[in-house]
Amino acid sequence: FPVTIQPIERTVKKAFLDKHHIQQDGPSSINYGLFHNGSMVACMGFISLKDGRYLLSRFATSSHVRGGFSKLLKHFTKHHMWSTITSFADLRWSVGNVYQQNGFVLDGITAPSYEYTKGKVRHHKFNFRRQHLARHLADKFDASLSESENMKQAGWYKIYDCGKQRWV
User: What are the tens digits of pLDDT across the range 122-145?
Assistant: First the structure.
């Protein structure tokens, strides 16, 4: 079907990813939307690292969009000077086929990690490093306890993943 690709504002990207990506919105400095009949059906976000290196940080669709990933990636590579593009496939949800089909090479597998949740929203562990816990947990923080113990005591739970594949 006929589609168009155009840059999108961060607010548009955020609203789309919050609705259609398992990890919701994430950082990115370059964002493209794939549109069909005037409606955005997919988006892709990139982070510019330096020296032509980019991180493909998010890709999501509102429904099954055949070729959506490759169309957005091709548009990005055509309009930017790049040397490498790196992305990650979360092994809970993916085996990386879309990356392999689009010329990426498996570069490694990370060890399982975790996030925190209190309710329905997950939060990256980076936000709860030990040195920042007193600020986040306020009166529930106990300096004698570990990060995990403090978080559990404050009603937060860990959700573990299965590791990630790194594709370049």
Answer: 888 888 888 889 888 988 899 999
Q: Which CB contacts under 8 angstroms, 24+ apart, belong to 21-25?
A: 21/58, 21/59, 21/60, 22/90, 22/93, 23/58, 23/90, 23/122, 24/121, 25/58
Copy the structure tokens of residue 143. 């300096």
Contact between residue 75 and residue 81 where contact means Cβ atoms under 8 Å apart: no
**pTM for this predicted structure:** 0.84
Q: How far is CA 142 from CA 127, 131, 147, in A?
A: 17, 12, 9
For residues 89 and 5, give the distance between their C-alpha atoms in angstroms, rounded to a whole number: 24
C-alpha to C-alpha distance for 60 and 112, rounded to whole angstroms: 23
Structure tokens at 50: 């330096």
